[in-house]
UniProtKB/TrEMBL annotation:
Region described as Disordered: spans on this chain: 1-24, 39-90
Domain of life per record: Eukaryota
Residue stretches of biased makeup (Polar residues): 79-90
Protein name per the record: Uncharacterized protein
Biased composition (Low complexity): 1-19, 43-66
Length: 90
């Protein structure tokens, strides 16, 4: 977001836009918003990294469990799907 402020530092009068909000107030608001957005982006990236690490740990745990208990993670399909074993079913 780029805002051009027409009020110079030498004059004390601040120009107001159609909504009556002074431009240096807007500038301050946008500066604050940029800071907020930047900090939130950092938080999101940190959270995503933590989630990815947790997911990797969970996947490793699941893989270890699969070695011990394969029948829990690979259930046998229902009988209706096993048509190849019964060729008489049309």
């Amino acid at each position: 977001l780029s805002l051009s402020s027409s009020s110079s530092s030498s004059t004390t009068t601040t120009t107001t836009n159609s909504t009556g909000v002074t431009q240096n107030l807007l500038q301050r608001y946008f500066d604050d918003m940029q800071r907020v957005v930047a900090s939130r982006l950092e938080q999101q990236q940190q959270q995503q990294q933590q989630q990815q690490q947790q997911q990797q740990q969970q996947q490793q745990q699941q893989q270890q469990q699969q070695v011990h208990h394969p029948q829990l993670f690979f259930p046998s399909p229902p009988q209706s799907l096993n048509t190849s074993r019964n060729p008489t079913i049309t």
